[in-house]
Amino acid sequence: MTPLRLERREPARNRQRFYTIAVTRTLFDGWALVREWGRIGQPGTVRETWFETESAASEAGAKVRQRKEKRCYRAANCQQSKKY
């Protein structure tokens, strides 16, 4: 599945942040929502949240995306995933 990359740029405040959301299958036959965030151009913090089903992980990803878009994050890539 294609990861979704969101960015928030505020040059006046020197804020350049990114947030990446992806849903992947785990080695233990489950699903994980993988999130990475940080300053653009720097390594980010990564967090995994495990789910029983793909739909539960996708729903959680959609909620994260909505929260980030309320905080002025916008999609950085032209292709957006259909999962979110």
Can you describe this structure?
There is one protein chain. By secondary structure, the protein is of the alpha+beta class. The chain has a single domain, classed as Single Sheet (q64v53_bacfr protein fold), CATH 2.20.140. It is 20% helix and 43% strand. A five-stranded antiparallel beta sheet has the order 4-3-2-1-5, with helices on one face. The termini are close together. The C terminus is likely disordered.
Count of helix runs: 1
Chain oligomer state: single chain
Q: How many independent structural domains?
A: 1
At the fold tier of CATH, the topology name is: q64v53_bacfr protein fold
At the first level of CATH, the class is Mainly Beta
**SS strand fraction:** 35-45%
Major β-sheet profile: 5 strands, antiparallel
Please provide the count of β strands. Answer: 5
Report the structural category: alpha+beta
Q: For the residues shown, what is the average pLDDT?
A: 89
Shape: elongated
Q: Could you estimate the helical fraction of the residues in percent?
A: 10-25%
What string, H for helix and E for strand, traces the elements in order?
EEEEHE
